[in-house]
Each structure stands twice: as structure tokens, then as C-alpha cells.
Amino acid sequence: xxxxxxxxxxxxxxxxxxxxxxxxxxxxxxxxxxxxxxxxxxxxxxxxxxxxxxxxxxxxxxxxxxxxxxxxxxxxxxxxxxxxxxxxxxxxxxxxxxxxxxxxxxxxxxxxxxxxxx
Amino acid sequence: xxxxxxxxxxxxxxxxxxxxxxxxxxxxxxxxxxxxxxxxxxxxxxxxxxxxxxxxxxxxxxxxxxxxxxxxxxxxxxxxxxxxxxxxxxxxxxxxxxxxxxxxxxxxxxxxxxxxxxxxxxxxxxxxxxxxxxxxxxxxx
Lengths: 118, 141
Known about the structure:
The complex is a heterodimer.
Chain A: H1 3-9, E1 13-16, E2 27-30, H2 34-40, E3 45-49, H3 54-62, E4 67-70, H4 78-87, E5 90-93, H5 98-107
Parallel strand pairs in A: 2-3, 3-4, 4-5
Antiparallel strand pairs in A: 1-5
Helix pairs in contact in A: 3-4
Chain B: E1 5-12, H1 21-32, H2 37-58, E2 60-67, E3 71-78, H3 86-89, H4 99-102, H5 111-117, E4 121-127, E5 131-139
Antiparallel strand pairs in B: 1-2, 2-3, 3-5, 4-5
Helix pairs in contact in B: 1-2, 2-5
């Protein structure tokens, strides 16, 4: 799924790195626990979270993720935005709650932890 | 094993926000060396979890990464409180982290298991009141 499609489906605001909106993601993870994200997620995934601290961006960077969606109108800090720009990670913010955001993406074909065949 | 590249990092234990910076820099170095993305990811995640642990539990420490011809070795050293029961600490879900740490997204008891999951070799030496040294290796195919 294109990141621009995620933005449209979640009616999300682009916080940074709009250059990455044309990239694709192949799986998704919704979590506020970063160690769970580090344990289970495959690459080219989108992270959906309500957690706001710099470790969210670090985790995404370590996992080669190129998009993070903040739910419940949470907004990343200036420091997080700088880190994301440095790593080429698109940050989106939506007013939707975690459950709803995950449901919308799932029902539109972004099914969990699907592994991309490379 | 004739050529060894060594990267040394000091991990600041006083600033949770900057935790992960060493892993971030190391990941950049590994990319510059042209290693496979999967190998880079495994090393980065294992080192990052270790770095987070050092900041959360041990007031920081040092990280040394040695790149050999056949493997990448990560050595994490701290002078923190040590691990009382290593077997218990290796169990997924076991954690001594505070609620405050959990609110920051860590302390789910996945750190050490994740480090083992992403590496080919892992050894923990720890003494209560003295510190902990964790050695991990990721093989290069």
C-alpha cells in the first residue's frame, strides 16, 4: 500500500518527509510497546502508535520502516521530526484512535505482518 | 580474521531521549561497509535493545562493535546493578523495569530475548553490584 493511500484513508496530516509518500509498505504494526515492534515486525512496515518520544523514531529507523502514524491527534516533538527527516521516515498524524486506524488499514488490504517476498 | 574494524561508543545513561544514538551511528557505518540489509538490521536491533537496557538499568556504559571477515561482534559493558537471575531475565515478558519506563514504550520483557533472537551467538556475564557484559555475534554469510 502506498503511504499516500494510508494518509488518505486515515485523513492524516503529513508532519514531515512528504517525499516518501510514494513509497510502499507491505505490513503494519499497531503498538505502544517498542520492544514488541522490534520483536515481530518485518521490514517495509508502517508503525501505528500513540506513543510520543524519540525512541519511536529510533525504533522505526532500526526496523527500516519508512512511515509512522500517530493516532489520537498525538503530535511528534521537533526533535522527533528532525530524527525522522534525517532517516527519511514519513510522519503522519490522524485524529483516529488506534483501533479504528488499524481497522481501516486492515480492511483496505494492509494485512498485519505480511512478509514481502523479495 | 586479519582485518578487524572496531567502532567504540560511550552510551550516556542520563538521557533516555538520546538512547539509541550509538546504534543509529553504527547502522550508518554498516551501510557504508555495504553489508546486506538483513545483517545490518539484525546487528542494529540487537545493539539498540542493549543500548536501551544500559540506559534504563545501568546508567549507561560502552558499546564496541568489531567487524571481522566472518562475523560482527557486539560487546556491551556496563557497571550497573547486574542481573540477579539471567535465566529468568531471558524469559519473554519478564522485566524489572518501572511503570515509568513502560510508559516510554520499553520494559515489556522483550529486550534480552530480542537480542538473542536477532543474533547467532549471545553470552551474558553479570555480577550483582559489579556490572554486566553482553557479547553477541552475527555471522556474515
